[in-house]
Design a protein that fits this description.
The chain is mainly α. It has 2 domains: about 375 residues, Growth Hormone, Chain: A (Up-down Bundle), CATH 1.20.1250.20; about 55 residues. About 80% of the residues lie in helices and about 0% in strands. α1 packs across α6. The longest helix is centred in the first third of the chain and has 32 residues. The protein is globular. The relative contact order is 0.14. The model has no long low-confidence stretch (mean pLDDT about 80).
Length: about 450
């Protein structure tokens, strides 16, 4: 196998592996009414079907990055893919809501193994301009998963059953395992012990805080079921930071944040992906519950964003490799913010061309400019041998940002879905994007060119 063919195979494997993990974070949204219609449970079940996956994915992705660097990217990818297929089938066959929620949590564990290993695989196989283009393609497809999820979920739910949104995962997983078979597993020369205590503190801290944020809407802040997990989670997160500062072999080396671009890029990631997660949820909910669109039609509204990400991200990734990421990371979020403001014209009766299309196009162009330069700036600031953990930190922060933002959504803008609710949510998203643009403009430094 020639080097070119091998690198192309690595890129396809990395994209497919991460795509299925990101897709399952958004595909389920449009199927939630159908799930509760069959399994019962109402809104609480809908919340936990989404959040059980995101909590385990966000909690364990740092540990997965360490495992990737320790045992090899190919080995961890293989384990994650097999686990993802098994847990996806468990979700699709779940006889009760409780079994589905438990299967979703297990699916998040498998998904956590896929994300850092896939991107680290690219960083290890590509260098220079080809690396920038490869990262652009990876970020294009994985970011498109956020947008294409509601469309695919709507089609499968309307045409077949909500169960197919999980069962369908087996197809890309099998294809990826076949493509992965010839790749060699390269293990680090120096095997660093796993920071077990750090992993436990990080997972417990995130799970406790997120649980409290979700359940406070049902029980109130004064309920022991809310404030006890919140207190335990907060203490655990403090303990996690202390552990990372003092451990001989930390799971998340704080030394990574000594790199200016890594630290600033991750701060921008928090703002940008919080806005992306909230907007993806509120637009789909509004289009179905207020505008009266079907699950499939509501997914089709955002299809231009997916197409633009796929077609343009690699080009902007290559340009960022030539000219530096700073202004791409500034202009992109600014355009998305303008797009969110434009989408406030959504109303009933709904008209796609006059109300949605201008904002959707600005949204798609802005994200296409942003995603690849953002990833390149963060990972390009860290040496390749630590790319697994660097990727894990960045992806963990993006998932956690979205999870916390969605958990806080009801407290910030209310729970009554109407025109004012959408307007406030989109203004919140625009503000977060403007924050991401300002952080990038002030903090990111373009690397010196030879």
């Amino acid at each position: 196998m020639t080097a070119t063919v091998l690198n192309r195979r690595v890129l396809i494997v990395a994209i497919l592996a991460a795509f299925v993990a990101f897709l399952d974070g958004s595909i389920v949204n449009v199927a939630l009414p159908a799930i509760t219609a069959e399994l019962g449970g109402g809104l609480p079940v809908q919340q936990w079907v989404v959040d059980a996956y995101l909590i385990t994915l966000g909690s364990l992705i740092l540990l997965a990055g360490s495992l990737s660097d320790l045992f090899g990217r190919v080995a961890i990818l293989r384990i994650g893919l097999i686990g993802f297929a098994v847990t996806s089938l468990a979700c699709g066959l779940a006889p009760t809501a409780e079994v589905l929620i438990a299967a979703r949590a297990a699916q998040g564990v498998a998904g956590a193994l896929l994300v850092p290993s896939s991107l680290a695989l690219i960083m290890g196989a590509h260098r220079g301009a080809t690396q920038a283009r490869a990262i652009g393609l990876w970020t294009a497809w994985t970011s498109a998963a956020f947008i294409i999820g509601p469309l695919l979920g709507g089609l499968l739910t309307d045409s077949f059953s909500w169960r197919w949104i999980f069962v369908i995962n087996v197809v890309p997983v099998v294809i990826t395992l076949v493509l992965l078979a010839p790749l060699r597993n390269e293990v680090a020369a120096q095997r660093t012990p796993i920071d077990v205590l750090g992993a436990v503190l990080g997972a417990l801290g995130l799970a406790g805080v997120v649980f409290a944020l979700i359940e406070q809407a049902n029980y109130g802040w004064g309920a022991p079921l809310v404030w006890v997990p919140l207190a335990v989670g907060a203490v655990s997160l403090v303990g996690f930071i202390v552990r990372q500062a003092t451990a001989e072999h930390p799971m998340m080396p704080l030394s990574l944040f000594r790199s200016r671009n890594f630290a600033v890029g991750n701060l921008a990631t928090v703002a940008i992906y919080a806005a992306l997660s909230v907007s993806g949820l509120v637009i789909v909910i509004y289009l179905q519950q207020v505008a009266g669109l079907s699950a499939t039609a509501s997914g089709l509204v955002m299809l231009p964003v997916t197409l633009m990400l796929v077609l343009l991200s690699s080009r902007f990734g290559a340009l960022a490799g030539r000219f530096g990421p700073r202004w791409f990371m500034t202009i992109g979020p600014l355009l998305v913010a303008i797009g969110f403001v434009a989408l406030r014209s959504l109303q009933t009766p709904f008209d796609f061309v006059t109300q949605a299309l201008p904002g959707v196009l600005l949204f798609g162009l802005g994200m296409s400019i942003t995603v690849a330069p953002l990833t390149s700036a963060i990972l390009g600031a860290i040496e390749p041998e630590r790319s697994g953990i660097a990727s894990a930190v960045n992806n963990a922060l993006s998932r956690i940002a979205g999870l916390v933002a969605i958990a806080l959504l009801g407290a910030v803008i209310g729970t009554v879905v109407d025109d004012a609710w959408l307007d406030n949510a989109l203004l919140l998203c625009a503000g977060l994007m403007l924050a991401g643009a300002a952080i990038s403009a002030i903090g990111i430094r373009n690397p010196q060119r030879d």
